[in-house]
Amino acid sequence: MRDRAVFIDRDGTINVNVEYLDDPDEFMMYPSVAEGIKILKEHGFKIIVVTNQSGIARGYFSEKTLEKIHQKMKNELSQKNASVDAVYYCPHHPDEDCNCRKPNTGMFEKAIKDFDIDVKHSYVIGDRMLDVEAGYRIGCKTVLVPEDKEKVEKEMKESKIKPDFICKDFYSGIKWIINNK
């Protein structure tokens, strides 16, 4: 049997979005994220973080710094008995036209192959329409947790794609997934 997954965006979804987060000390996880991830794991989902990190290509921080930030995230989750199965990131500049930068699906495709994911029974959670679009492209249900409501409302007006569920916070999105799995 293939695994189900929840693909989760990092900045603005797991943690407060700091533009080009380049210091692990500035990583601040949202309340209830660890609890929500723990619940998803208890329901048999693989947890896969997918994040655009163009700050690397822009020279704002190194991959080593990014790994320290991800390690801090993993440590904070672990302290609350939660964990992620993998973290995939795109280090490219938006102008590089790579296949991994969301809304493209390269990171998702790699995870689907690595973990033998059943996309029809999987979900994408993110704070922007590019997360929703990536989820739509790979065939997952999508949950939008807008951090910047004005920006997301504008993105939604410009998009032909709509999220399957829009929620006020991460935990509400988790409850919707559990009720609709």
Describe the protein.
The protein has helices at residues 33-42, 63-79, 106-115, 129-138, 149-158, 170-180, and strands at 4-8, 45-52, 86-90, 123-126, 141-144, 165-166. It has 181 residues and is of the alpha/beta class. The protein has a single domain (6-180), classed as Rossmann fold (3-Layer(aba) Sandwich). Strand 2, helix 2 (63-79) and strand 3 form a beta-alpha-beta unit. Helix 1 packs parallel to helix 6. It is globular and about 40 Å long.
Relevant terms:
6 helices; 15% strand; 181 residues; 6-stranded parallel beta sheet; alpha/beta; Rossmann fold
Short structural summary:
This protein is of the alpha/beta class and about 180 residues long. It is built from 6 helices and 6 strands.
SSE order and pairing:
Elements: E1 4-8, H1 33-42, E2 45-52, H2 63-79, E3 86-90, H3 106-115, E4 123-126, H4 129-138, E5 141-144, H5 149-158, E6 165-166, H6 170-180
Parallel strand pairs: 1-2, 1-4, 2-3, 4-5, 5-6
